[in-house]
């Protein structure tokens, strides 16, 4: 696993670490995920969750831990969470510091199933995030059915926002929408200081991206104070 920090600029601190799967030699998540067949999906998803919790505890993480999961690997939320809860108990990891990040929404045909996962996790005290919002399948229509705690705004909308009035207008609209729906926002893929400052001025203080830190393989990155200025 690798961990990438999510920061809150206004608070000048790391608020989450996202756990990202990697190969034994640091291979990318994509190269690993493309090897996961349908019959292995559930076991793979469970193994990633358990390893993320165990390693976060071993590294002394104090922030919230965000774990990616494949919705189609969850056949029944309460049953499928048990191995994760057992791992958290063994590691002494507080379950309320777990966030589950929904990935690969394009592969989910059953919206009711995804809604059931989100609502079940909320009842169990977890939070959920919807990844890649504003790109491809992770779009506005999902919000007619789903109530995630957080939307992660895709890099496609963040890229060059400091010099792109159209992107700024879209981001302002998303901020207003999120306030109405009482959903938090995280801007993904922040790569430059100018992007970060622009996002902050638009009301997007929670940010993630290479500007702050690349994912660190089996370690926790620290953020230079200058990144917040």
From TrEMBL:
<dbReference type="Pfam" id="PF00563">
    <property type="entry name" value="EAL"/>
</dbReference>
<dbReference type="InterPro" id="IPR035919">
    <property type="entry name" value="EAL_sf"/>
</dbReference>
<dbReference type="GO" id="GO:0071111">
    <property type="term" value="F:cyclic-guanylate-specific phosphodiesterase activity"/>
</dbReference>
<dbReference type="InterPro" id="IPR050706">
    <property type="entry name" value="Cyclic-di-GMP_PDE-like"/>
</dbReference>
<protein>
    <submittedName>
        <fullName>Diguanylate phosphodiesterase</fullName>
    </submittedName>
</protein>
<feature type="domain" description="EAL">
    <location>
        <begin position="1"/>
        <end position="229"/>
    </location>
</feature>
<dbReference type="InterPro" id="IPR001633">
    <property type="entry name" value="EAL_dom"/>
</dbReference>
């Amino acid at each position: 696993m690798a961990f990438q920090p999510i920061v809150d600029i206004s608070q000048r601190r790391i608020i989450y670490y996202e756990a990202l799967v990697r190969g034994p030699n640091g291979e990318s998540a994509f190269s690993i995920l493309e090897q996961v067949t349908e019959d292995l999906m559930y076991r793979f998803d469970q193994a990633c969750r358990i390893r993320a919790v165990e390693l976060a505890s071993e590294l002394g993480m104090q922030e919230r831990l965000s774990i990616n999961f494949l919705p189609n690997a969850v056949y029944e939320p309460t049953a499928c969470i048990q191995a994760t809860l057992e791992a958290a108990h063994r590691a002494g990891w507080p379950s309320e510091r777990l966030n589950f990040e929904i990935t690969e929404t394009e592969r989910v045909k059953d919206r009711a199933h995804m809604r059931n996962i989100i609502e079940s996790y909320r009842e169990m005290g977890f939070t959920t995030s919807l990844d890649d919002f504003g790109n491809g399948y992770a779009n506005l229509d999902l919000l007619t059915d789903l109530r995630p705690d957080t939307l992660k705004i895709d890099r496609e909308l963040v890229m060059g926002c400091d010099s792109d009035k159209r992107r700024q207008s879209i981001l302002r609209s998303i901020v207003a929408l999120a306030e109405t729906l009482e959903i938090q926002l995280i801007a993904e893929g922040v790569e430059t200081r100018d992007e970060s400052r622009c996002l902050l001025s638009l009301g997007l203080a929670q940010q993630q991206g290479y500007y702050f830190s690349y994912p660190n393989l089996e370690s926790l990155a620290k953020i230079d104070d200058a990144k917040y200025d």
